[in-house]
Design a protein that fits this description.
Mean pLDDT: 88
Order of helices and strands: HHEEHEHHHEEH
Strand order of the largest sheet: 3-5-4
Shape: elongated
Number of strands: 5
Number of helices: 7
Strand content: 5-15%
Largest sheet: 3 strands, antiparallel
Low-confidence stretches: none
Distance between the termini: 90 Å
């Protein structure tokens, strides 16, 4: 009886081990390789993270994640130093998200997510007021005054993720006069640049028209080179 029990246990153990090895090869090797291969052939751009390259071919970001365009800090180690936007570039939406990274302080990042504050929250109301005042001040030029009613919602509120790479065409056009003045370009030329980088609704009816800020700033950089 003892020998039979040991033999049965050994056979069961060997069957389980074989099943483990087969499933490991199928689910851990063959399936990932197949899915990766199909993705690379069918839609390589999305499979590789929607990378965006500049004119030299260097990867400078992703089409799915927003970036900030700020002036360098005078003291990089001073966490209290105010962040100042570099106004020669198109600016993205505010990126309040869930706040600053407080765990891994090696990197300065925004935690992705919505603020989840209600419309009557005092902090949110103040953020919107401050953002609106800054948008009006930053984008008013010697020959163009931004009116409060001209400021679209996405210029003063963050998205659900807090790192939206897009802005509305209205917010992009609101920045045109500042961009033209700072980069010594004509308003008409910058208007044309915005129009060229405005994506319509998906399939003509899904979502809203949008402008990818990174792609727009790459085009602006190339334009100012010439």
């Amino acid at each position: 009886m003892t020998n039979n029990s040991v033999g049965n246990a050994g056979r069961l153990l060997w069957a389980g081990l074989r099943a483990l090895l087969v499933l490991t090869v199928i689910t851990g090797v063959l399936y990932p390789l197949t899915v990766t291969g199909i993705a690379q052939v069918a839609f390589p751009g999305k499979a590789n993270g929607s990378e965006i390259k500049d004119a030299s071919g260097k990867v400078v970001g992703s089409g799915l994640i927003g970036q900030s365009y700020d002036l360098p800090k005078k003291n990089a180690d001073d966490a209290e130093e105010a962040v100042v936007p570099d106004l020669k570039w198109f600016q993205p939406r505010p990126s309040n998200g869930l706040g600053d990274n407080s765990v891994n302080t090696q990197y300065s990042i925004i935690l992705s997510g919505a603020t989840n504050r209600s419309g009557d929250n005092a902090d949110l109301i103040q953020w919107v007021k401050d953002a609106k005042a800054a948008v009006i001040k930053d984008n008013s030029t010697a020959d163009h005054q931004v009116r409060p009613e001209d400021v679209p919602a996405d210029a003063v509120t963050s998205s659900g993720s807090g790192v939206d790479p897009h802005i509305s065409p209205e917010y992009a056009r609101l920045q045109v006069h500042r961009i033209a003045e700072r980069n010594k370009l004509t308003v008409a030329r910058v208007d044309e640049l915005v129009a060229d980088h405005t994506d319509d609704r998906i399939l003509g009816f899904i979502g809203e028209p949008r402008v990818n800020v990174l792609e727009l700033n790459i085009a602006l950089k190339e334009l100012t080179k010439g």
